């Protein structure tokens, strides 16, 4: 009887351990976008932007430069904002604060892949660039 009870306990603990949530669903690796630059182009081409700038200065793009795991630089018009952000799953949230005049609520981006962000409020794509926003 003692052997059967011991065997039953061992089998039960083996099944319990095998069905553990940690083993079946490991935590996904957090996305690290450090050092990446993203842009949402406001013109179809560099030439179109330059033509528009002949009559009135305007930005060619909106940009987001990810500095490290919590700091970034955001440009929506001609103001550079030092911002904090966080990533949870496939969502990147740029935190608004009292000095972000152009946006008073957090900006929420869906991370489509490591080269593309989607600003959820207006469904605009922000593409990674390295040297030039026009590449």
Strand-helix topology:
Layout: H1 2-18, H2 21-24, E1 37-41, H3 46-55, E2 61-66, E3 71-75, E4 80-88, E5 91-94, E6 107-113, E7 116-119, E8 124-129
Antiparallel strand pairs: 1-2, 1-8, 2-3, 3-4, 4-5, 5-6, 6-7, 7-8
Task: Give a description of the structure.
With 135 residues, the protein is an alpha+beta fold. The chain contains three helices and eight strands. It has helices spanning 2-18, 21-24, 46-55, and strands at 37-41, 61-66, 71-75, 80-88, 91-94, 107-113, 116-119, 124-129. It has an eight-stranded antiparallel barrel. Strand 2 and strand 3 (71-75) form a beta hairpin. The termini are far apart. This is DUF4878 domain-containing protein. It comes from Salinimicrobium flavum. Residues 1-20 form the signal peptide. Keywords: Signal.
Largest sheet: 8 strands, antiparallel, barrel
**H/E element sequence:** HHEHEEEEEEE
Number of H/I helices: 3
**N-C termini distance:** 75 Å
Organism: Salinimicrobium flavum
Keywords: Signal
Protein name: DUF4878 domain-containing protein
């Amino acid at each position: 009887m003692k052997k059967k009870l011991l065997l039953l306990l061992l089998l039960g603990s083996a099944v319990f351990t095998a069905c553990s949530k940690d083993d079946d669903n490991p935590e996904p690796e957090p996305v690290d976008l450090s050092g990446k630059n993203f842009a949402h182009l406001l013109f179809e081409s560099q030439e179109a932007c330059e033509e528009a700038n002949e009559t009135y200065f305007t930005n060619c793009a909106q940009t987001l430069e990810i500095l490290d795991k919590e700091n970034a630089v955001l440009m929506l018009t001609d103001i550079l904002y030092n911002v904090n952000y966080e990533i949870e799953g496939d969502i990147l949230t740029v935190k608004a604060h009292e000095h972000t005049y152009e946006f008073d609520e957090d900006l929420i981006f869906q991370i489509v892949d490591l080269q593309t962000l989607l600003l959820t409020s207006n469904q605009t794509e922000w593409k990674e660039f390295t040297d030039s926003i026009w590449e």
